[in-house]
Amino acid sequence: MAQPRVGLIGATGETGGSILKGLIEDGGFDIIALARPESLSKRANVTLKDKGIQMRALDLEGPQEAIVAALKDIDILISAIAGSQQLAQIPLAKAAKVARIKRFVPCAFATPMPVGVHQSRDQKEEIFNLTKRLHLPYTIIDVGWWYQFSFPRLPSGKIDYVVGFPNETIPGDGNVPTALTDLRDVGKYVARVIKDERTLNKTAFVYNELWTQNKIHDLLEKLSGEKIPRKHTPAEEYERKVDAVIAELETNPKDPVLRFKKVYNQYCLSVGIRAENTPEYAQYLGYLDGKSLYPDVNFTSYENYMKEVVDGKAVGIYDEMRPLLFQALKEEH
Amino acid sequence: MAQPRVGLIGATGETGGSILKGLIEDGGFDIIALARPESLSKRANVTLKDKGIQMRALDLEGPQEAIVAALKDIDILISAIAGSQQLAQIPLAKAAKVARIKRFVPCAFATPMPVGVHQSRDQKEEIFNLTKRLHLPYTIIDVGWWYQFSFPRLPSGKIDYVVGFPNETIPGDGNVPTALTDLRDVGKYVARVIKDERTLNKTAFVYNELWTQNKIHDLLEKLSGEKIPRKHTPAEEYERKVDAVIAELETNPKDPVLRFKKVYNQYCLSVGIRAENTPEYAQYLGYLDGKSLYPDVNFTSYENYMKEVVDGKAVGIYDEMRPLLFQALKEEH
User: Fold this and answer.
1) Which residue in the list A49, A51, A102, A124 is annotated as catalytic?
2) Which among B81, B65, B69 is positioned nearest to B12, based on CA atoms?
3) What are phi and psi of A254, to 5 degrees?
4) Would you name the residues of B annotated as active-site residues?
5) Known catalytic residue: A307?
6) How many angstroms separate the CA atoms of B114 and B285, rounded?
7) Taking every annotated instance into account, which residue ranges of this chain make up the domain NmrA-like (chains A, B) (predicted)?
8) What number of CA atoms fall less than 13 Å from residue B75's CA on the CB side?
9) Distance from CA of A276 to the nearest CA of B (A)
10) How many whole angstroms separate alpha carbon B159 and alpha carbon B313?
11) CA distance linking residue B74 with residue B61, whole number of Å
């Protein structure tokens, strides 16, 4: 039997890059990276092509027939589209139905969350709902919070080279567990999930390890020998900040720092206060549990990852976003 | 151990009445019927009280503390609230969280359907989403389409006494299966579901039998000896009618006949064309399958129910709605 042909959107992004690597390492897939026509000549895509990845142009703003043609002969379609482009999946899902895609994996790849908390998540939910109206076979995969965004700075500044997300204050008492995954392991899980009949038309939650902010701080202090100041922020403070930033966004709806602040505080509430990034809450929402499905995945332990961080060997992500994150961080803390 | 205490909203309605009967026959529950303060003196509620049902006043427009007080000591809260009152469950769900309800059964009790097809269903979904934001333990129960609404008139008019829903035209080719349940059996399933740990924080689809419109017509012809004219309506015709009625509703948003027509045509598309009222589609949406959960429920067969209908022994439902339904039916057919 021929290998299943996987179409991957977003192969040059952080999540898509991990998925591409996972699919290649699995070895069981015929992979096609789908990219915007005008992006095919960009360096990142040329690099993929040079590595032997089949490339296809996909213009989600073009006519449906062209999108359907770009999906020809693809069995499994994975969308790791940019966070800001979620609604571009509307024509994608409609074309996937026409193209008889056997499994559509719409963009999720984050923390489990109910509807009505977070705009970006709600946009993803719009795509899930459209998928279901289309009766399109699907799998939704959430992967928890990334190792890469999970830890605070050190007072010495020695790990600033890799800090990607503000974790300078600890939500609530700091004892709420959060499911963490090394971004580099995301693709391993995706490769397992998409060839698994048990996950067809299901939502799956995969992750590496459960940690609390207090334990993360303890670990980083132990590995670095530095003492990290611990400032706890109560739930009400995050709620107040969400309300304030929503009010500010009314006058400056496009301001990227404000938008990031909103997402940041909403995530702190969901993940750090309400414990929504946990296997228990995911199960409550109806997810299949990744630990039960794939107990044998060989992933990087959080402790080993944090050793890389402290040893100056970790690799930063979202480099182009970091100045924005740091500005927001400075204003929030 | 004390019996679980069940609070039931809508006990004098069609669905709630069946649930009340099912709970009583089960014998394993301490039942409290919750009704609006001004309704407690109405005949239907006085009848319940005379039968020994405990009654409590519940004012969903009142202050939260009063709603919480009305839910005191209730373990399982079932809402079979009127179709037009779905959003009154917002204060109910919030109070249920404060009252530490162990299992909230928000109003569903219809056919499985994706988000974005049908306003009433979408309102129910709003309540499901709120429930999940509250982290409130829940079970959602859909019961398919009622026997009582499943069949067409006979040319002789002899079963007009009990026809409750227009089925004079057959959606599509008439071979699409639809899951049917005798309204009188709904409560039997609910009694099973609410004491079942497997259904906690899950969505369950329970139903009696699968029938197609062609087979329903065949059966009714066989039982009555009459020939029923068969007019098939294609999908495009329903879509055109939905669009037309949505346009008409813009000028007359409250018109009850228009509103019913919209729902009717949307249901015909979902149930009769897209086969969404089936165990396969329910499973696709993530429902647990009632036939696997409760293979031993003793229900009325569709054939026996239809014999009652033809023999003049069936009981009509929604009597106060029938003139409206018949007016809409006349205009649609």
Assistant:
1) A124
2) B81
3) -100, -5
4) 124
5) no
6) 8
7) 6-242
8) 12
9) 9
10) 10
11) 20
Question: Chain B partners of A286 at a C-beta cutoff of 8 Å?
Answer: 201-203, 286
Q: What is the mean pLDDT of chain B?
A: 94
The pLDDT > 90 percentage for chain B reads 87
Chain B positions in Cβ-Cβ contact with residue A201 (cut-off 8 Å) = 283-284, 286
Q: Which residues contact A263 (CB under 8 A, 6 or more apart)?
A: A118, A119, A120
CA distance B281 to B190: 21
Q: Are B20 and B187 within 8 A, CB to CB?
A: yes
- In B60-172, DSSP assigns E strands to 76-79, 103-105, 139-142, 145-146, 169-171
Q: Which residues in chain B touch residue A274, judged by CB atoms under 8 angstroms apart?
A: 135
Position A330 scores a pLDDT of 66
Query: A75 phi and psi, to 5 degrees?
Result: -90, -45
Residue A176 has pLDDT above 60, yes or no: yes
Domains of chain A: 5-137 (3.40.50.720), 146-179+209-276+300-332 (3.90.25.10)
From B195, B93, B82, B167, select the one nearest B135 (Cα to Cα). B93
Measured distance between the N- and C-terminal CA atoms of chain A, rounded to whole angstroms: 56
Q: Are B183 and B147 in contact (CB under 8 A)?
A: yes
Span A201-222, pLDDT tens digits: 999 999 999 999 999 999 999 9
Kindly list the residues from chain B whose CB atom is less than 8 angstroms away from the CB atom of residue A266: none
Which residues in chain B have their CB less than 8 angstroms from residue A116's CB? 129-130, 133
Q: What phi-psi label fits residue B272: left (phi over 0), alpha (psi between -120 and 50 degrees) or beta? A: alpha
Pairing of strands B209-211, B178-181: antiparallel
Closest CA to A274 of A181, A171, A205, A179: A171
Listed by number, the residues of chain B in 101-120 with a beta carbon closer than 8 Å to a beta carbon of chain A are 114-117
Strand boundaries in chain A, DSSP class E: 5-9, 30-35, 54-57, 76-79, 103-105, 139-142, 145-146, 169-171, 178-181, 202-205, 209-211, 231-233, 288-289
ipTM reported for the complex, 2 dp: 0.94
Best to test chain A binding among B115, B126, B134, B202 (most A CBs inside 10 Å): B115
**Cα–Cα nearest to A29, from A194, A199, A189:** A194
CB contact under 8 Å between B281 and A117, yes or no, is: no
- Say yes or no to pLDDT of A327 above 90: no
User: What's the rounded Cα separation, in Å, for the pair B53 and B38?
Assistant: 18
Residue B277 to residue A148: CA distance in whole angstroms: 44
Q: Does B129 touch chain A (CB under 8 A)?
A: yes
Task: Residue B33: name the closest of B63, B74, B92 by CA.
Answer: B74
Contacts of B229 (CB under 8 A, 6+ apart): B155
Whether residues A286 and B202 touch (CB distance < 8 A) is answered with yes
> Residues 257 to 276 of B: which have CB under 8 A from any A CB?
274
Contact B197/A at CB under 8 A: no
Interatomic CA distance for residues A160 and A330, integer angstroms: 13
Res. A318: pLDDT tops 90: no
Distance CA B266, CA B245 (A): 11
SS3 B109: coil
CB within 8 Å: B286 and A202: yes
